[in-house]
Amino acid sequence: DTGVSQDPRHKITKRGQNVTFRCDPISEHNRLYWYRQTLGQGPEFLTYFQNEAQLEKSRLLSDRFSAERPKGSFSTLEIQRTEQGDSAMYLCASSLDGNSPLHFGNGTRLTVT
Amino acid sequence: GEDVEQSLFLSVREGDSSVINCTYTDSSSTYLYWYKQEPGAGLQLLTYIFSNMDMKQDQRLTVLLNKKDKHLSLRIADTQTGDSAIYFCAESFTGNQFYFGTGTSLTVIP
Known about the structure:
The complex is a heterodimer. Helix content of chain A is 0%, strand content 50%. Chain A is an all-beta fold. In chain A, strands 2, 4, 5, 6, 9, 10 and 11 form a 7-stranded mixed sheet that branches. Chain A has a 4-stranded antiparallel sheet with strand order 1-3-8-7, with no helix packed on it. The termini of chain A are far apart. By secondary structure, chain B is mostly beta strands. Helices cover 0% and strands 57% of the residues of chain B. Chain B has no helices and 11 strands. In chain B, the strands form 2 sheets. In chain B, strands 2, 4, 5, 9, 10 and 11 form a 6-stranded mixed sheet that branches. Chain B has a 5-stranded antiparallel sheet with strand order 1-3-8-7-6, with no helix packed on it. The A-B interface holds A 4, 6, 33, 35, 40-45, 48, 56, 91, 93, 98-99, 101-107, 109 and B 4, 30-31, 33, 35, 40-45, 48, 88, 90, 94-103.
């Protein structure tokens, strides 16, 4: 069990640029979640997938954000035209099914300058 | 299901017990969880309890659930300096997403 891995660990970008993050879940896990965490706060739900289907998106997820899980395995989260307010830790988690706990990766820390 | 509250800070002396508390508002949650987060890392699952249970013990960890008061607690026995971290409680609903509290920062004083 290699756990959930995220890439990159850190990303610094200039305002207005696009960024893409990748998440590789635990291999047999059907569900994959994206969360955002800012300093001093708990994780905030962004979106989740059941296999390749995106089942729910938070109203926090503006149209600049898009997530995909094309083959039901790894997922990507893209942020277009980044803003300083997008600076946060982006966490990916996976679970076996809807009744199982989440297992988190170590996150991607995004800094928008 | 989105209001999960925790106190922000807790300090204890090494060897003492720590009790971290959490209140939630939605009684239809299925499971309640405790996660630990160390600096620069993701959240590590510590333990979880099904909503029809009152208590769960796992080595140094004891989880107590009071459904009537919508109160969840995590007791860490014989707290060690390595337990210093931020602790999050979370609730989940069958087939749905998870909601997290704001976290309690535990400091263990040697």
